[in-house]
Automatic annotation (TrEMBL):
<feature type="signal peptide">
    <location>
        <begin position="1"/>
        <end position="19"/>
    </location>
</feature>
<keyword id="KW-0732">Signal</keyword>
<dbReference type="InterPro" id="IPR039424">
    <property type="entry name" value="SBP_5"/>
</dbReference>
<feature type="domain" description="Solute-binding protein family 5">
    <location>
        <begin position="77"/>
        <end position="462"/>
    </location>
</feature>
<protein>
    <submittedName>
        <fullName>ABC transporter substrate-binding protein</fullName>
    </submittedName>
</protein>
<dbReference type="InterPro" id="IPR000914">
    <property type="entry name" value="SBP_5_dom"/>
</dbReference>
<dbReference type="InterPro" id="IPR030678">
    <property type="entry name" value="Peptide/Ni-bd"/>
</dbReference>
<dbReference type="Pfam" id="PF00496">
    <property type="entry name" value="SBP_bac_5"/>
</dbReference>
Length: 540
């Protein structure tokens, strides 16, 4: 049970959220064996699988759906909803499905996957996860290049097709996927949220479906999505695809302030907080005792430059700002050493990671930074701002970063909050936010490629900053097509070296899960994808 990518929170970084943004009820929170529990999430941007690419929505969907594959302790894919996934050449993949039913009792079929994926791949639908279908044959016809040379759902020319030519339902239980080029790691890709199915009826009225999604996972909706307040789910009694829940229900409570959520946790009014707020990191271990938890995570926190803005067009300016930030000091003072400094563009949890790939650009050197900034002609107006989602607990570290930039570069720097993470993503996606902005990334599947393609490819699903480098794109593609993992990693490392020269973003921190739970629950675990493992939680 896992999920997705862009994250809003500062610390451990599991999406934005926390504080009572309206609340939720206490129904089912207190009961005995079985019973239910509550946890914090951010207001999801979407609850359509093919458009859910942030961690709040993904946490909810991880309970409602089961992926084709999950991952073991070694990050190897293991079959979940799939009975088998095979390919003789890494290009044509045959997926056979296990028997399963939707939450309304109807059987899950191959057509349910094909219909959902075609909807996500069709450019005019503007699905946030559209990019992930780009390796399948026929994608280009559904997302043609427009006269300006730009590609993608929002500015594309009229598509020539509405379905992927490389996607077929062979029978009720068999899907055939033909890729544009071989991709040895494609089995792992299929574990991502956007590859969940949807019932055929959902496509007839997605707006209505999204308010109460029908899935095939261990939990089913209990009522409708109560926006800015809560999403309730209950155990699905006929679940067949994996471990059944040990509780009767889960209430995902939507918060806008992390400290409020934490206070609710201390009062036993909230059962799980997936991110301990920065402000209480020093006291939380004593306050929670053995209910204060940490675990490995795949989180990568960074500040992005709007490379389409002439103010930040010169790579020397971007490097100078990076060199003027003392990552280690901020982690020590603000984060109480709960995170580690990032000087590479991929997480240490994936194969191919190398230390300090950012080189001089990520080395704290105020004198060299000031000199480089002067050589580049300085910053227009001598003013910069760093945007962030106000519901994610970023104000403290961004203020500390601004203080360093004022001191080390003489820049006027301010923190600029946007109320919700989903709103920030929408603004930067539409290029309506002016200035630098923070983002966080959780891997979608355990591969170095997942830290490169979506974030920095010209048409990457989460390339919100307009970065484009043809050599980088080529190397990422060549890595996908490589016959062995070693060959693929070599190509992807070459691509990462290009990022170190161009610096479209500033690597800042690698996170870990730092979370806590009430006395009402036990066996609370978070995985590398920064998600609570919902089926493992038990009542105390």
């Amino acid at each position: 049970m896992r999920g997705s990518k862009m994250v809003g929170c500062a610390i451990v970084v599991a999406l934005a959220a926390t504080a009572c943004g309206g609340g939720g009820s206490d129904d089912g929170d207190k009961g005995g064996s079985g019973g239910g529990f509550s946890m914090n999430v951010a207001e999801p941007k979407r609850l359509i699988p093919q458009s859910t690419t942030e961690s709040g929505g993904s946490q909810v969907l991880s309970g409602l759906f089961t992926p084709l594959v999950d991952f073991d302790a070694k990050n190897e894919p293991v079959l979940a909803a799939a009975e088998s996934i095979e390919s003789p050449d890494n290009k044509v993949w045959t997926i056979k499905l296990k028997d399963a039913t939707w939450h309304d009792g109807k059987p899950v079929t191959a057509k349910d996957y094909v219909g959902a994926w075609n909807w996500g791949a069709y450019g005019p639908n503007a699905a946030d996860g559209n990019y992930f279908f780009g390796t399948i044959a026929g994608y280009d016809e559904m997302n043609p290049v427009d006269p300006d040379g730009e590609e993608g759902p929002k500015k594309a020319a009229e598509p020539k097709a509405k379905e992927l030519s490389g996607l077929k339902a062979i029978d009720d239980k068999t899907i055939e996927v033909t890729l544009k080029a071989p991709f040895a790691g494609y089995k792992s890709v299929l574990g991502y949220t956007v590859f969940y199915p949807m019932p055929e009826a959902a496509l007839a009225d997605l707006k209505a479906y999204e308010e109460a999604p029908i899935g095939q996972g261990p939990f089913q909706m209990d009522g409708k999505w109560n926006h800015d307040k809560f999403v309730k789910v209950k155990a699905y009694p006929d679940y067949k695809l994996g471990e059944k829940p040990k509780v009767d229900s889960v209430e995902f409570r939507i918060f806008q302030d992390q400290n409020t959520a934490y206070n609710d946790l201390l009062a036993n009014n909230l059962d799980i907080v997936d991110q301990i707020p920065t402000e209480v990191m020093g006291t939380a271990p004593n306050e929670l005792g053995d209910r204060f938890k940490t675990s490995l995570a795949s989180t990568f926190q960074f500040v992005a430059f709007p490379t389409y803005d002439k103010k930040y067009k010169d790579a020397r300016i971007r490097k100078a700002i990076s060199m003027a930030i003392d990552r280690d000091e901020i982690i020590k003072v603000v984060f109480q050493d709960s995170q580690s400094s990032a000087r590479s563009f991929v997480s240490p949890v994936v194969g191919g990671y190398r230390e300090d790939t950012c080189g001089e650009a990520c080395k704290f050197d105020p004198a060299a930074a000031k000199k480089l900034l002067a050589e580049a002609g300085g910053i227009d107006g001598n003013k910069i701002n760093i945007g962030h989602n106000a519901d994610g607990g970023h104000e403290q570290w961004i203020n500390a970063t601004c203080d360093q930039l004022k001191k080390n570069l003489g820049l006027e720097c301010v923190s600029q909050g946007v109320p919700k993470f989903a709103e920030l993503l929408t603004q930067v996606e539409n290029k309506k936010f002016s200035g630098m902005f923070r983002l966080g990334w959780i891997m979608d599947y355990p591969s170095m490629e997942n830290y490169l393609g979506p974030l920095y490819s010209t048409n990457g699903s989460s390339n919100y900053y307009g970065y484009s480098n043809k050599d980088f794109d080529r190397l990422v593609d060549e890595g996908r097509a490589a016959k062995t993992e070693a060959e693929a990693i070599k190509k992807w490392q070459e691509a990462e070296d290009i990022l170190a020269k161009d610096m479209p973003v500033i690597p800042l921190r690698f996170g870990k899960n730092v979370f806590g739970h009430s006395t009402n629950v036990k066996n609370v675990e978070m995985n590398l994808f920064n998600q609570v493992e919902l089926t493992k939680v038990e009542k105390s």
